[in-house]
Amino acid sequence: MAVPDLVAPAIILVEPQMGENIGMAARAMANFGLTELRLVAPRDGWPSEKAVSAAAGAAKIIEGARLYPDARSAVADLHLVLATTARERGQMKRVFSPEEAMDPIRERLAVGQQVGILFGRERTGLENDEVSLADAIVTFPVHPACPSLNLAQAVLLVGYEWFKRETGSALPFGGEPLSPRAPREMLVSFFDYLEGELDGAAFYPPDKRPIMARNMRDMFLRMEMTEQDIRTIRGAVRALAEGRRVRKG
Fold first, then answer.
1. pLDDT reading at 245 higher than 90
2. CATH code of the domain made up of 10-167
3. Cβ atoms 61, 93 nearer than 8 A
């Protein structure tokens, strides 16, 4: 599936604690066409070899990451900011699921505005003052016994919903058969051949042959076989029949 370059929201990681988590978040971004990574004061400094190692094919995102001293400066040029959080913050803000958040994101991007999504620290998430910088909250429908996602998981879920909306949920490949459906003439010829071989093997009780033959035809018809299916099964029956004749001889 060819996908054009997409205008996408920026992913903003606030004080990420481990280079490996930054790398895995970058990989999740690359999976779904997100390319702009902003980092707010990474705990272990920057650049990070551990981030590059964990990125697994998303090195360009790591190399292009922009550093900021705090969340305020990281969102200064944005027109729409969404903050991800797993818990209620007591702030009068709209709350979206990742899927619902895609509508306002796409609307702003469509008119040339810049959008960013804030993700908090691995252990404690975003601080309330950082959430207060956002227009709305994005939270995840998770089991209440374990509501916290790791950083890369949260980025991946948001990226998945965005890419799904942008591409119309198009899959990278389909399951179409490589061989066309078998025409009726081919099917009937196969039935005649199979039933002839079964007659030779005394498979049918004489009084039940008509109904058993019809049932077998129905069975094969339910399979909606392709031309290749017919050739394969016919070849298998031929091999069995010829082997039986050789053994008899």
1. no
2. 3.40.1280.10
3. no
| Region class of 45: left (phi > 0), else alpha (psi between -120 and 50), else beta | left
How crowded is residue 154: how many other Cβ atoms within 10 Å of its Cβ? 26
Q: Could you give the CA distance from residue 196 to residue 225 in angstroms, rounded to a whole number?
A: 20
Phi, psi of 121 (to 5 degrees): -65, 150
For 129, the 3-state DSSP assignment is helix
Cα dihedral 161/163/165/169 (nearest 10): -100
Q: Report the distance separating Cα 197 and Cα 93, nearest Å.
A: 75
Residues sharing a CB contact under 8 Å with residue 111, sequence separation 6 or more, in sequence order: none
Q: Write down the domain spans for the chain.
A: 10-167, 184-248
Q: Are strands 115-119 and 80-84 parallel, antiparallel or unpaired?
A: parallel
Q: Token match 């998945």: residue?
A: 160
- Cβ burial of 166 (10 Å; 0-12, 13-18, 19+) is buried
pLDDT tens per residue, range 215-240: 999 999 999 999 999 999 999 999 99
Check if the beta carbon of residue 84 is closer than 8 Å to that of residue 154: yes
The pLDDT tens digits for 179-190 are 999 999 999 999
Would you say the C-alpha torsion 40, 44, 50, 54 has a positive or negative sign? negative
Phi then psi for residue 21, to 5 deg, are -70, -35
* pLDDT tens digits, 28-71: 999 999 999 999 999 999 999 999 999 988 999 999 999 999 99
- Please give the structure tokens belonging to residue 77: 């040029």
